[in-house]
């Protein structure tokens, strides 16, 4: 056991220093981004090279139902082989005993990667970049709300009460006083992140009531997706310690901004180590423009992955801090594609479309896939936009059904993400959407019952 412990990442070994490891959580992300797996005694984990789970976990909808005939052979559960990636071993510091989490990769009995496992989808896309000699680099930004405990879905979600005893106030972006209101929760987020070896680039108050943003340092897409996957769990656990909920819904509170997962992209030439988006004299390269063109061309079809629920589309409203179109501009937060101010070495492209409710592996994968298609198709983007993009027309789907139609027809995107993944994802999301359409909302009862 001690030899195995010595191979763990530094943060995990530091967490266990002088302590006896009790349990290991063997986990994998499903399509919504929920951790699925098994908790096993540490002594058993030390003796096993893999464990089994049914592949049906990737056919399950957010409500717990199953995508009809998601398996091309019919609905037949087959066991997958889950193998640990020990580089992901990290603490679960909120547990009552000494527990580690380890992310596993999913394979079939022949050793092939399961094509609809979200982590495998992202690895597939990253590998396509590597084959071109490029190293993709991403930096995600995580927005979320701290809200009052909500035990009845019929009740509206309300902001949590801060240290002052007053509900969190809206329109206090970047206010340090507002951040201090959530001090105890934020302290636990920092403590949990430190125990897990995660580096937070900063926490700020966003524009919504009780809305915070965490920025992560740029790096490898798979590693950063692992961190977002872990962060969602640790933030929820920190909130529960203080009698509130953390929610990553795209739009949890009416008349408040939604929560995004902005994704910053850059490319490194593997051979030279230079930023592919910058030329020898520091200017913008053709690859820079091709990447932007790929986002403009393919993001409408990719939206079903980056905005995966009916609630997701409530973000895309004029003047509510979310884009309504795919214009691109420099240092302009009203556009869907933004080029932040930077030097040539750190030149990057920001995708502001993705919602925080998306699966981080899939959101990053599909954003990279759009850029990859632009690089290979070598298209040019529309002219740079100047002014307020909210004054223009929207050019992204406004409802889930429309987004799914575009995704189903996006054959070039399917080839990058994997046709089997695209098939299963489309079936599962269509099942969720059709289930939603059977629900009658309070708005319909209030305005239509006696008036139509």
Automatic annotation (TrEMBL):
Cofactor: Mg(2+)
Recorded superkingdom: Bacteria
UniProt entry tagged with the keyword Methyltransferase: no
Pfam families found in the cross-reference section: Gln-synt_C
Sequence ranges assigned to domain GS catalytic in this UniProt record: 118-452
SUPFAM superfamilies named in the record: Glutamine synthetase, N-terminal domain, Glutamine synthetase/guanido kinase
Keyword Hydrolase: no
PROSITE patterns the record matches: GLNA_ATP (PS00181), GS_CATALYTIC (PS51987)
Keywords annotated in UniProt: Ligase, Magnesium
Family per similarity comment: Belongs to the glutamine synthetase family.
PANTHER family: GAMMA-GLUTAMYLPUTRESCINE SYNTHETASE, GS CATALYTIC DOMAIN-CONTAINING PROTEIN
Protein name: Glutamine synthetase family protein
């Amino acid at each position: 056991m001690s030899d195995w412990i010595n191979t763990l990442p530094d943060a995990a070994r530091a967490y266990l220093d002088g302590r006896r490891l009790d349990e290991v959580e063997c986990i994998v992300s499903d399509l919504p981004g929920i951790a699925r797996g098994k908790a096993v005694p540490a002594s058993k984990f030390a003796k096993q090279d893999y464990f089994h789970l049914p592949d049906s976990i990737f056919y399950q909808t957010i409500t717990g139902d199953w995508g009809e005939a998601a398996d091309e052979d019919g609905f037949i559960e087959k066991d997958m082989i889950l193998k640990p990636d020990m580089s992901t071993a990290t603490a679960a510091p909120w547990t009552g005993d000494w527990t580690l989490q380890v992310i596993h990769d999913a394979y079939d009995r022949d050793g092939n990667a399961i094509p609809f496992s979200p982590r495998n989808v992202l690895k597939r896309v990253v590998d396509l970049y590597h084959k071109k000699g490029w190293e993709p680099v991403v930096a995600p930004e995580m927005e979320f709300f701290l809200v009052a405990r909500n035990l009845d879905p019929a009740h509206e979600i309300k902001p949590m009460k801060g240290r002052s005893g007053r509900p969190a106030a809206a329109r206090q972006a970047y206010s340090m006083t507002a951040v201090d209101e959530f001090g105890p929760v934020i302290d636990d987020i920092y403590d949990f992140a430190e125990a897990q070896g995660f580096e937070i680039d900063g926490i700020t108050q966003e524009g919504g009531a009780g809305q915070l943003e965490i920025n992560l340092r740029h790096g490898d897409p798979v590693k950063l997706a692992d961190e977002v996957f872990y962060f969602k769990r640790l933030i929820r656990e920190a909130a529960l310690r203080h009698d509130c909920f953390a929610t990553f819904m795209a739009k949890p509170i009416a008349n408040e901004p939604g929560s995004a997962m902005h994704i910053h992209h850059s490319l490194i030439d593997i051979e030279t180590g230079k930023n592919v988006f910058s030329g020898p004299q520091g200017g913008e390269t053709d690859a820079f423009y091709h990447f932007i063109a790929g986002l403009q061309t393919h993001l409408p079809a990719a939206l079903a992955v980056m905005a995966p629920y009916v609630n997701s589309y409530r973000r895309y409203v004029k003047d509510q801090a979310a884009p309504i179109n795919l214009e691109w501009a420099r240092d302009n937060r009203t556009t869907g594609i933004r080029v932040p101010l930077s030097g040539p070495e750190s030149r990057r492209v920001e995708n502001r479309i993705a919602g925080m409710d998306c699966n981080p592996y899939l959101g990053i994968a599909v954003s990279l896939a759009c850029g990859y298609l632009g690089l290979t198709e070598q298209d040019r983007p529309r002219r740079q936009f100047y002014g307020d993009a909210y004054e223009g027309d929207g050019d992204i789907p406004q409802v889930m059904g429309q987004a799914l139609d575009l995704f189903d027809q996006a054959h070039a995107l399917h080839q990058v993400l994997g046709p089997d993944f695209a098939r299963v994802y489309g079936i599962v999301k269509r099942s969720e959407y059709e289930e939603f359409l059977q629900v009658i909302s309070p708005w319909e009862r209030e305005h239509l019952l006696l008036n139509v």
